[in-house]
Write a structure and sequence with these properties.
single chain; alpha+beta; 8-stranded mixed β-sheet; about 45% helix; about 15% strand
Length: about 550
């Protein structure tokens, strides 16, 4: 798909491409006919405006093509009415005895009679006609409007109506100008570039004889870190013309690096002078902008809109958090507990905006760790002894839990050699963030960047800023962080529910050496309950699980009240 600025441009481009490629099933426009041009015969002493079917380099001025074809004849008739350009085929010498009917009905200024119109006066009319055909008609519209108002005030309503229709035609001609086929474009290539965090797309419009005849796309799906537009254009021009000849003009959106060297290389390959130009205004700049728009559309299609939006969100994060590089890998931590019971943690990984489920990790909090500071600055030292998991709730300590899980995660990464994240996301505020940084500093990883996201307010907390960062609710960067945080929370809650379920299904028999799930079920089914197992004799137990395990069961319960 190629984007144009108007339906007229799309029609002109369709005509060009059908004639260039001759597709099998396009019946219309496959013949040698083209939309008509208007030819100002500048090679004649007294030029005329004629309808021409093709553009030729014969010294005459061509305008168009005109779509539909009747618009060309309407425009030609307007040049007769407005400027008095002749329409006859006579050889003009200026010595004719009297002017013809065209002069009487004010459709010609009669250059055939030099006493009525001199060659200089006719030359000025020809110059105005060329400006009109080139579309430089703002001044013309202003003049026509003044003449129309004067005619209306003088009650010359027929003349005023003609001037009104002339203004409409001039405005329509201006609106129908297009860039897909213009005689003044000649031979040139036009580059458009879209450089994003996901990769690069370059679109090249090849213009031949004033018509866009081909569109070539170059691209890479690898991220180009730190590359400038000038460097990208330099590489794109070298790659594109490695096996192609260059036209006289190459139009680019910005100046490429080593421009002079590139021009010299292109001239040596093409055998003629080649200029690399950065258009600033007018139709040439408009075609460059159109190529840029097509490159942006191709970028969206190549990386699909969802992926491109994710990379845009990552780029926003990089700018907001002042990160040295794009946060392509984000690891998020969340703690799940109910009043200190069965405290667990989760860690999820997001790469390039996509969750990497295979790298998720879950942790049971052991309760060991080094001293950290809470949000109030008070130093607290968790117990160095491992905490026995039990159903009895203990005082919740999210800060210590966060310190422990971050320390365990990155100690293992240090042993394995990575990969380390570009950004660590902590589910919590200043306190949890401080605990995470304390663990990183103890491991010598204080260079890693962490950020906390608080629930409800959805504020971002960083180490370097006193005040939190507030992003708009619909900001793609915030939505991405929320999605990662919610996934970490879901994973932690799921693990926490499973841990509680395992605790509720726990039996004292699980602590007896030699008793597994199968023997436990056998004993409970045979004796009805744990109390029944405790009351059983050695002979009854041995009949079910053997003498060795029976002795272990008796020894276990003998030491318990």
């Amino acid at each position: 798909m190629i984007v144009t600025d108007s339906v007229v441009e799309a029609l002109a481009l369709e005509n060009n491409l059908i004639k260039q490629r001759s597709p099998k099933y396009n019946i219309r426009l496959r013949d040698d006919k083209n939309y008509p041009y208007l030819q100002l015969t500048a090679t004649e002493a007294f030029p005329r405006v004629l309808v021409a079917r093709r553009f030729e380099r014969d010294g005459n001025y061509y305008a168009g093509p005109f779509m539909p074809a009747r618009f060309a004849r309407k425009t030609m008739a307007l040049t007769h009415r407005l400027f008095g350009i002749r329409s006859c085929n006579e050889v003009i010498t200026g010595k004719r005895g009297r002017a013809c009917l065209e002069y009487d009905i004010k459709r010609c200024i009669a250059p055939c009679v030099d006493t009525i119109c001199s060659a200089e006066e006719y030359g000025r009319a020809v110059a105005l006609t060329q400006l009109f055909l080139e579309g430089r008609n703002d001044e013309l519209l202003k003049t026509l409007k003044g003449r129309m108002v004067d005619a209306a005030e003088g009650e010359r309503f027929e003349e005023a109506a003609q001037l009104r229709d002339a203004m409409r035609t001039v405005q329509t001609l201006h609106d129908r100008q297009q860039k897909m086929a213009r005689t003044e474009l000649g031979h040139r290539d036009v580059f458009g570039v879209k450089l994003g965090p996901a990769g690069l797309v370059v679109q090249v419009f090849q213009v031949r004889s004033g018509r866009v005849v081909e569109r070539v796309e170059l691209g890479t799906e690898a991220a180009i870190v730190g590359a400038t537009l000038g460097e990208v254009l330099e590489a794109a021009i070298q790659q594109f013309y490695e096996l192609r000849g260059a036209p006289p003009d190459v139009h680019v959106p910005a100046e490429p690096d080593n421009r002079d060297a590139l021009e010299t290389w292109l001239e040596e390959k093409s055998g003629r002078r080649v200029r690399i130009v950065v258009p600033q205004r007018g139709e040439k700049r408009g075609l460059v902008d159109l190529a840029n728009r097509n490159a942006a559309l191709a970028y969206q299609n190549r990386f699909n809109q969802a992926t491109a939006a994710q990379y845009d969100a990552l780029e926003t994060l990089r700018a907001v958090l002042a990160l040295p590089a794009l946060p392509r890998r984000i690891e998020c931590f969340d703690i799940s507990t109910i009043q200190g019971s069965e405290t667990v943690a989760s860690m999820v990984v997001c790469e390039d905006g996509r969750m990497k489920r295979g790298e998720y990790r879950k942790y049971r909090i052991r309760g060991s760790g080094l001293g950290i500071r809470d949000s109030g600055g008070t130093r607290r030292v968790p117990s160095p002894e491992p905490r026995v998991l039990s159903s009895a709730p203990t005082a919740p300590d999210d800060f210590a839990a966060m310190h422990e899980v971050v320390q365990r995660r990155y100690r293992k990464l240090l042993e394995e050699g990575g990969p380390f994240p570009d950004l660590i996301l902590i589910d919590g505020g200043k306190g949890q963030l401080s605990a995470a940084y304390a663990a990183l500093e103890e491991l010598g990883l204080a260079n890693l960047v962490a950020v906390g996201i608080a629930k409800k307010e959805e504020l971002l907390f960083t180490r370097d800023r006193e005040d939190p960062i507030a992003l708009a609710g619909d900001d793609p960067a915030l939505l991405l962080l929320q999605r990662i945080r919610d996934e970490a929370h879901r994973f932690a809650v799921t693990f926490h529910r499973r841990a509680r379920t395992m605790r509720d299904l726990h039996s004292e028999l699980d602590h007896v050496p030699g008793i597994g799930p199968r023997r436990r079920r056998t004993l409970l089914r045979t004796f009805g309950s744990l109390a029944g197992v405790r009351r059983a004799t050695r002979e009854e137990l041995a009949a079910e699980v053997g003498p060795k395990v029976a002795d272990a069961v008796l020894a276990f319960f003998a030491g318990r009240p």
